[in-house]
Amino acid sequence: MTGFLGVLRRDLRLALAGGGDILTLVLFFVIVGAIVPFAVGPDRELLARIAPGVIWIAAFLAMLLGLDKLFRPDRDEGTLALYRLADLSLPGMVAAKVIAHWLTAALPLIVASPFLALILAMDMDTYWRTLASLLLGTPALAAFGTFGAAVTVAIRRGGLLAPILIAPLSVPVLIFGVGAISPLGGPDQASAAMLFLAALSLMALALSPFAAGLAIDWGEE
Amino acid sequence: MSIDDTPKMSWWNRLAHPGQFVNWTRPLIWPLVAVTAALFALGLWFAFFNSPADYQMGDTVRIMYVHVPTAWLSQFVYGAMAVSAIGTLVWRHPMADVSMKAAAPLGAVFTAMALFTGSMWGRPTWGTFWEWDGRMTSTLILLFIYLGIVALWRAFDDQLRAARVVAIFTLVGAINVPIIKFSVDWWSTLHQPASVFRPDGPTMPGSILTPLFVMFFAFTFLFITLQLVAMHTEVRRRRVMTLERKAARGAGA
User: Fold this and answer.
1) How many structural domains are present in chain B?
2) H or E element that contains B109
3) Is residue B14 part of a domain?
4) Which of A161, A171, A214 has the CB atom closest to B180's CB atom?
5) CA distance A126 to A132
6) Across the interface, do A152 and B155 touch by the CB < 8 Å criterion?
7) Nearest chain B residue (CA) to A174
8) Does A169 contact B172 at a Cβ distance shorter than 8 Å?
9) Is A127:A41 a contact under the CB 8 Å cutoff?
């Protein structure tokens, strides 16, 4: 347990001290969302209709962008080897990483999301549901992403590989995430999607530390 | 009196030796090729000359004899890969590694063929090459997963480490594939009515079912043959790499 808290504290401190990584990620998220009106035109009705999807895509891409920073610096400087040698369970270490990844790569995006909601002409009701679906769905993205980063950490130039591996697996999160917002299916459909989203997050959070720990252990020699 | 405690070599252990595996399975290849060719000849003859054209779709219904077997294989190959992955993780069986690696590109090709023939069939019957129908979407995502696995294999230098990591990813993918399928079904029924794309076609009469079954076995045997040949190729490729390394070491010394 002390190891778990130690890893978590170390990662958070590094992220906060690390010269604006979080800020860059938030900027990327906001810019992806802000570029959409230039591509589809400034029609307010159209923007309001696609806004939940746009916010989800922007969050998805921004979280994929941060994956390479999860394990690679640790591996390059040798911390990962120390984790493996230390009396520390690898799944516990990965669980701390998942939480740190969510706190540094998902929570800031959620905090910044009102800005996107504003410029994409979302109404208040839709925004609250978007917020809820982001809060419920991003843990699953963080867990899947950590697994992808763990699988590719042993590869020297694996930076682009993790997003490619993880994107197809994340399709259900996007489907239920946007399905929980869109009023197309009626309120009961939306709440069903919200429950599925929560189930996905719980399952991914519970299983990914073990799979990722195994991948790290067996990927190294 | 001494007790003989040397472990008996089971066929399973003997199979773990790549050279033994190649020696044992090499005689199987030509019979398999012959069976596959015969099944294809019979199936294609049935499909082209001895099955009726559909009263609505006309001759385009014959695409089905390629489409349905490849779509079946797109899932069957993933199952074979997942079983091999368990073999890698649990028993560290070297041939399971090889089988996993050989199956990935084959699965990708069968999945791509299913998608291609599907869109060729969809154009004349539904009027569109692509529709975000549940089955088509989940097959497309399956193709992406296959291609990701192929990319993962190619990214590693050390094939032994690659095998273990890919095995973990394959199994995680195997857990995810049903979830993806379910979510995509949920999504596409939410967004579009399932009326046009599930036409209640004629219930299949025997004249269509026979060629379909023959083609189904033909493609399955094609997969088994190709899988075996690809495994042999992979064993030889590894041996060549070892020999090259040995030669390089000798030249350096």
Assistant:
1) 1
2) helix B94-126
3) no
4) A171
5) 10
6) yes
7) B183
8) yes
9) no
Task: Judge contact between A71 and A149, C-beta under 8 A.
Answer: yes
Of A147, A161, A175, the CB nearest to B172: A147
Give helix A124-152 / helix B159-191 axis angle, nearest 10°: 160
A218 touches chain B (CB under 8 A): yes
For B168, the token pair is: 């973990």
B8 in any annotated domain = no
For residue B202, the distance in angstroms to the closest alpha carbon of chain A comes to 32
B190 interfacial to chain A (CB closer than 8 Å): yes
Chain A residues near residue B173 by CB distance under 8 angstroms:
169
Which of A94, A169, A196 best tests the B interface by mutation, with the highest count of B CBs <10 A? Answer: A169
Task: Decide if B66 is inside a domain.
Answer: yes
Tokens of A180: 């929980």
Work out the number of other CB atoms within 10 angstroms of the CB of residue B241.
11
Instruction: For residue A206, count other CB atoms closer than 10 A to its CB.
Output: 11
**Coil, strand or helix at A158:** coil
pTM metric for this prediction: 0.89
Check B151 against A161: CB less than 8 A apart.
yes
Q: First-to-last CA distance in chain B?
A: 49
Return the CATH number at B236.
1.20.120
Identify whether B27 is part of a domain. Answer: no
**A171 touching B (Cβ < 8 Å):** yes
Using a CB–CB cutoff of 8 Å, tell me whether B164 touches chain A: yes
- Nearest Cα to A25, choosing from A106, A97, A103, A102? A106
Range of the domain at B176: 33-195+206-245
Q: Do B165 and A157 touch (CB under 8 A)?
A: no
What is the distance between the alpha carbons of residues B4 and B27, in angstroms, rounded to a whole number?
A: 34
Query: What pLDDT tens digit does each residue of chain B (253 aa) get?
Result: 566 666 666 777 777 788 888 888 888 899 999 999 999 999 888 888 877 777 676 777 788 888 889 998 999 999 999 999 999 888 888 889 999 999 999 999 999 999 999 888 888 877 888 888 778 888 999 999 999 999 999 988 888 888 999 999 999 999 888 888 888 887 776 654 444 444 444 456 667 788 888 999 999 999 999 999 999 999 999 899 889 989 998 876 5
- ipTM (interface pTM): 0.89
Residue in A closest to B189 by C-alpha: A185
